[in-house]
């Protein structure tokens, strides 16, 4: 991951990153291609965009925004969930599958409405386990005000899948006049983070039992559609939103910088991390900036509206620790830098590899 | 599978079947729960409907039909594809994933528009294989006039999945005034089948190489949205449509009988099966009536419009062998019977178990 560099090194990298197209050199698919970082971007650009390329897909947001013949706009999104273990402190693959797709729709500016559910089940899964996951999905849908309206079940032989994978797709309605786009982002805009970093990824890691750590924290899995609406009401000129899932906040701000060709300057002192999560990360040598969240999102808002956005978030469950974590700047274009607590500056690169596979 | 019974036995079963609610006795999920037959129905009723129950889901069609605030209606559907092998004569998991979801939308009366794609990939899948599948998806989408607009990729470790699973969800627009429902079906209506039975399931079986048979036929995987529109234009009072995938035509007509509480009388002599497919089925002791199709659907049309529906289908690629295979009757309520070539009658029951796992 990122390490401190001199200013000359930073300047050199700026040029390199800007000119770089993600390349795909591997002959086989690796875990890194599913990790949400650099390899994922290369796979998407070189395999999926190349074959499927169309205007809706090319936007590459969390959801496609689609125009109906009558002018109404829909958001449409999908995610597959392969988290291991399927139950972990604070939630399950069922919660994730519903909340994750709701969140992709919400950060696209849509009001989530309908969810589909596709199950791939390994033969032998206890029926009680399936019932529990399905109940988690139903509860999550009710909590967020969406309906699960269509589904499909496939069963594969023992050993052909790992317990259960769930795909959800979702449809949301985009209110008239609402527009969120990285093209609206301007230097001086503030980067707001809705909640503390890293709880989901670390909760899953600990639930695997590979580590001899006892820690008192749970996944942040939750639907953020209510939080998003609060931000949009308090900060009506909000530019762009993204949920900080795979690859964490570090990946989201890198995508922002790359999309806008502007710089993102993070203030290390402001980055919210629960102390127990931070402790677990430190023991494992993992930077919480790259750890997956399932209930936190990044909002870019005009400077003048940032305090209102933060206040609105803090008044709601799941937003209590919202804060401004950085600012958009002219320099360095296309890159993210961190002002460290010691007064230095380092480049925050995109994630390479996959330190935490199957966390969602 | 179904065997000949006396009229007394038939009468007894009528009462039993009518009073039966599908029960779920198994403690673990089995392959049969994913096969589209009796066990699938029990799992759906007892696990998914119980937890997710809402008006849109309860309709239990191939797709949910959803009302937008402005009166426009959408169809929304999903399917996961786990076919093994991932490439087979006539197609691949990529073709299936696009065509299958298009077909679910089409038989719901919708014009398919947008598709999502969620990949769960086993680490080590050759990149060239992935590229080929993705290209098959792109080609299928272009052929059917839909766009793949959003997607997701997860990668799991070697052994945690079998090469690649693909989920697609799809959105279609339902034209104003169009209504298809089993509630519209009346005694005397004709059962039209758009194409010959069993080619897909048998092509996948043979591609597995478990059988020492050489056969000259390919999967019927295709998008049927054009065929569906032709039927609806030629037979505007078409009552109900369903694609005959998992569980085959036998399962579809059983669902029709159960939904309507009417009888379905099939004429064995008219059931279209390509001779090479029929030969392979005979060697394997499999009834083509229960074998999955990926490009054939059942349409229930009023008697007077049946000839026009058949003529319209026969004029299009994939519909050349369309024919009337049976009739809706008052008796026996809720059951399907077959008039055999020898003048007898036998009950055509729902599929029990899964003779052909992972054919889609």
TrEMBL record, chains A, B:
Output the InterPro entries linked to this UniProt entry. Answer: HypE, PurM-like_C_dom, PurM-like_C_sf, PurM-like_N, PurM-like_N_sf
Residue ranges of the PurM-like C-terminal domain? Answer: 186-332
Q: Note the CDD domains from the entry.
A: HypE (cd02197)
Q: Name one GO biological process term.
A: protein maturation
Q: Where is the PurM-like N-terminal domain?
A: 62-174
The family annotation for this protein states: Belongs to the HypE family.
The record's section on PANTHER family has:
CARBAMOYL DEHYDRATASE HYPE, HYDROGENASE ISOENZYMES FORMATION PROTEIN HYPE
Name of the molecule in the record: Hydrogenase maturation protein HypE
């Amino acid at each position: 991951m990122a390490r401190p560099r001199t200013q000359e090194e930073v300047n050199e990298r700026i040029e390199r990153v800007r000119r770089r197209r993600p390349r795909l050199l591997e002959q086989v698919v690796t875990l890194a291609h599913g990790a949400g970082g650099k390899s994922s971007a290369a796979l998407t650009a070189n395999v999926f965009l190349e074959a499927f390329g169309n205007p809706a897909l090319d936007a590459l947001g969390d959801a496609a925004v689609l125009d109906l013949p009558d002018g109404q706009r829909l958001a449409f999104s999908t995610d597959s969930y392969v988290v291991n273990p399927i139950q972990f402190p604070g939630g399950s693959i069922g919660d994730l599958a519903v909340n994750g797709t709701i969140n992709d729709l919400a950060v696209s500016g849509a009001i989530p409405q309908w969810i589909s559910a596709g199950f791939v089940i390994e033969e032998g899964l206890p029926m009680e386990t399936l019932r529990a996951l399905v109940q988690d999905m139903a509860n999550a849908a009710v909590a967020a005000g969406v309906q699960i309206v269509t589904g499909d079940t496939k069963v594969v032989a023992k050993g052909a899948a790992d317990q259960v994978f769930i795909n959800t797709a979702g449809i949301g309605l985009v209110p008239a006049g609402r527009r969120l786009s990285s093209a609206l982002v301007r230097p001086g805009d503030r980067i707001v983070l809705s909640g503390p970093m890293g709880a989901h990824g670390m909760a899953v890691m600990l639930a695997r039992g590979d580590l001899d750590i006892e820690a008192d924290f749970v996944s942040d899995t939750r639907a953020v559609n209510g939080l998003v609406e609060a931000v949009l009401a308090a900060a009506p000129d909000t530019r762009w939103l993204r949920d900080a899932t795979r690859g964490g906040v570090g990946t989201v701000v890198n995508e922002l910088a790359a999309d806008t060709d502007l710089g993102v300057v993070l203030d290390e002192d402001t980055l919210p991390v629960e102390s127990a999560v931070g402790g677990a990360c430190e023991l494992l040598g993992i930077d919480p900036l790259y750890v997956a969240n399932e209930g936190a999102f990044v909002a870019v808002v005009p400077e003048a509206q940032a305090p209102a956005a933060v206040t609105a978030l803090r008044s709601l469950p799941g937003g209590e620790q919202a804060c401004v974590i950085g600012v958009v700047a002219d320099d360095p274009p296309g890159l993210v830098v961190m002002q460290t607590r010691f007064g230095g500056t380092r480049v925050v690169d995109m994630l390479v590899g996959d330190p935490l596979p199957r966390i969602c």
